Structures are given as structure tokens and as C-alpha cells.
Amino acid sequence: MRRYLKILQSFENCWKILFTMKASIVINAKNALCDIEEILNSLLNQTFSDFEVIVVDSESTDGTIEVVKKYIDIFKDRLILHIEECSIGRGRQIGAELARTELIFYLDSDCIPPKDWFERFYNDFVEKGCDILFGKVKTYPDKGFFYRCVGALYESVYNEAGELNLTRYGNVGRGG
Fold first, then answer.
1. Which of 54, 106, 111, 132 has its C-alpha lying 20 to 30 A from 154's C-alpha?
2. Sign of the CA dihedral 157, 107, 119, 38?
3. pTM for this predicted structure
4. Could you give all domains of the chain from N- to C-terminal order, each with its CATH number?
5. Cβ neighbours of residue 34 under 8 Å, at least 6 residues apart?
6. 8 Å CB contact between 20 and 48
């Protein structure tokens, strides 16, 4: 009888999660030990937590998988770990296939979102009726040419607050 009660409680918890989750956050990882714990802690401390996290790990060999496994109990039923050798694109596709919501956010394993990241992006998505959102990234120009290029690209698209520069790009696809 106790076994059936545990199964029913687990089933009830799954239903609660499925009906309260607003979005899925997919993180691709490959040997991301130096950042994965910080990103998972950041997601645990978001001001808005109605999301699930899907980590698609491309068979890391540095301990990344073990760290993510420690967080499965902490996130409860909101963390999925999938391990498969794959490219970044294929990892994102796998994450989308595993997602239990229609709204999907992608984070790279070295992106540490601020405390209100999910709330701001979710609200912008809903309030502005966006089809796609991009966020400003912190760049590291001292790391070389590629990082300087990425920084220049983002600075031309986003204002200081990290919002899309609508005066320059308008509401693409929305008649704006």
C-alpha cells in the first residue's frame, strides 16, 4: 500500500510541475566543470522559478556529469540530464525534444544568468508577443579577436540595459 501511495504522490508532483512550468531551459555542456555548478546555482536562485532545466551533456570526461547528477535531487522533478555525444545544434534539438513545455530558452554552459534573467525574459516574451528573444552577453575582449567580435555584435544590437535596440531594429515580423 505504501508503494502505491508513493507512486501516486510522485504522479501528483509530476502533474503539478507540468501545469505550473512556463518554460524549459536547455543547456548544452561538454567538459564544463568550471562553470556548470555556478549556472545551476544561478538557476536555482532565480526570482521566478516556473521552469525546468534540461542539461544535454556531450559525454564530458571532467566531472561535469557528476556535478549535474548532484543537482537532480535539489531541482526535484525540474532537472533532466541527457548524456549523448553530439554537436551543439544536435544537443539543442535533443533538449527541445525532451522539453515538457512549448517555450524553450537556450543557455550555453558558460553563461551565468543574473538573478532576474528568467523573469525578465519570460515577461518580455509574453508582454511583447515575441517570436524569439536574444540576450546581451558579457564579453571578454582580453581573450582575443573572436570575443571582441562577439562583443561588437551585441553592442550594436542591444542598448546598455541589455534590451533590443528597437529604434534600430524595430519589431521585426510584428508590423513595427
1. 54
2. negative
3. 0.71
4. 2-133 (3.90.550.10), 135-176 (no CATH)
5. none
6. no
